[in-house]
Amino acid sequence: MGVRVLKSGMADSLRDAGRFGFQHLGIPPGGAMDNVAMQVVNILVGNPIGAVVMEMHYPAPQLEFNSPALMALSGADFQATIDGVEIALNQPMLVPTGSVIKFNKPVSGARCYLGVKGGFEADEWLGSKTTNNFAVRGGYQGRNLQKADWVAFAKPFSYEVEEPAVMPWTANVRELYPQGPCYLIPGAEYELLDAASKQCLIQEAFQIATNSNRMGYRLQSAPMHLGEYKECLSSGVGFGTLQLLPDAQTILLMADHQTTAGYPRLGHVASVSLPTLAQLNAGDSIRFQLIDMKTAESLYAAQEKHLRQLKNACNFRLQEYLSND
Amino acid sequence: MEKPFPYRIYPIGDQALTLDFGNLINDEINRCVMALFYWLKEEDLHGIKDIIPAYASISVVYDASLIRKWAGNGSAYAYMEDYLTQALQPLDLQALPSSRELRIPVCYHQSLAPDLLELCQEKQMDLDEFVAIHTAIPYRVYMIGFLPGFAYMGSLDERIVAPRKQTPRTHVAAGSVGIAGVQTGIYPFASPGGWQLIGQTPMTLFNANDDQPSLFQPGDLVQFEAISIDQFYQLKNKPS
Q1: Which end of chain A has a smaller Cβ tally under 10 Å, C or N?
Q2: Which chain A residues contact residue B64 at CB under 8 A?
C-alpha cells in the first residue's frame, strides 16, 4: 500500500515536525516548512498531528495510488487533479487504487502537503523521520523523491473505495495564516541598528531573492546598518531568525537553518507567522511589524487552540462518516 | 556558582531564549556553559526540545504550549527566563565531567592545505614552524555548530591567528582543517566555507549510523598530530 512516483517534482521530501535534541551537535530540526499545513493534512485524515507527510514544491510530482487511500492536501494551491478532475485543498478524500494525482500550475503558495491516513513510511534517524539531505538520513532514504520511488503507507488502510469521494467538509485554514505584516520579535542586536535602519525594518518591503531555499530566505531591501558594526561570537539561532549580513542585507533562517551563527540578530519571526512565511516564493515581498513577547505568545496560543478545535471537529466527522458508510 | 559572570537573557523567538555571558572566548565561561548544559540535560524539564551550548552562551528551545502549562497559563518566556536564572545558582564547575582527550592526525601537505603556503609567507614563517605551533597545544571544543559535527576549537597561538578568506570557497573538502581568527576547526562534510585551510584529517568526524554521530562533543580537548601524506592516504583508505 502506498504511492508510486510517476514523475518527480522539483523538491519533494518526507517531513515530520522536526528532529529535536541534537542541535548541540549541529544537527538542525529540518521539519516541515509549513508546520500548520502539515498538521492540517494529518488532522483531516485522522492522523496524529506529527505523522509523516509529503512536502512538495512546484513543479510538483505525479503520483499513483496503488491501493485505496484517505488523503488530503493543504498549503500551496498547485491546482491538483485526480484522474483529471480538479480537487480542493483542505478536504479529506477517498481515492481508489490506480488514482493518479497531478499538479497543474502554481496558483498560490510555495509548498503543498499531501497527507494519507496512517502517514507515509519513512526512515527514522535520531528520533525523527524528517529528511536530512545533508547527512542523507531520515525520510525516503535521506533524499528527495525521484521517479519510480515507491512510498509506502506506514499503516495499511483497509477500506474499500470504488471511486473518488470527497468528504462533505472543509477545514477553514484562513485564520491559521495571519495576513498582512510578518510579526517580528526584536533580536539582541536590534537596538544597535541606526535610526534610519530601524525605520527601514518596519517600513520597507523585503523581497525574497532567488537564492532562497529551505535553509534560508535571502532578502533584498534598502541597506541597513548598525550604529557600530559588531560581529558576535556564534550562538544558537532558530527558524525565523533575521540576521544582518556584512553586505547590509538580511537573511531569514528557515526550517533547515544552521544551529548557530554569528551575524547580528535583528529579530525573530513569531511562531504564528512562520507558516505564512513558508508559503512565500522568490520575488514575493515581506513587511515586518515588531511585536512584544506577550503578543507573540498569545497569538501562537490562539493558533494552537484553533488547530485543536479543528482536530476535534474533524475527528468527530471522520468517525461518523466512516462508520455510517 | 559563587561569583557568577555577568550575563543577560533574551528571546531568540517566542519558543527559544539565550543566556549570554558576553563576547568572550574564555575557558571558564565555556565551562559554566557546559555545566548549565549538563544540569539542564539532567533536569530534563518536559517541554525543553533542544539545548545549544556555544562559546559564551546557551540557547534553549522549548515548546511554548507545554511550558505555558508549567507557568499556570502565564508567559512561557517568563517561566523559562526564571528557570534559567535559577539554574545558575546550583552550578558546580567541579562537578563537570572531565574533558575527553582526543588525538587527531592531520596532514599539512600543501596538496591538502590550499592556504598554508600563503599564510606562511605572510607571517614570514617556515612551514614546519607553523605546523609545530598548530600542534603544540591541545584545543578546547568550545561548541559545535554550522554543520553537523563541526567543532569550533581554540584558542590559537597569536602567531598563527588569521582572518577568514575575503571570498568564501564554494567547495571545501571533508576533513579540511581551517583557521578563522583565534579559532580552528575541521569541516566534517564537503561544504562551502570561508576558513583558511591549513591541512586535512583522514578521520571520519560524523558517522550518521552511530547513536552518537559526532566524533567531537562540546568540552573535548583535541590534540592535533602531524602526519605525512603517505600516512594520510593509508589512514584514509583503511576500511573502518
Answers
A1: C
A2: 271, 297, 300-301
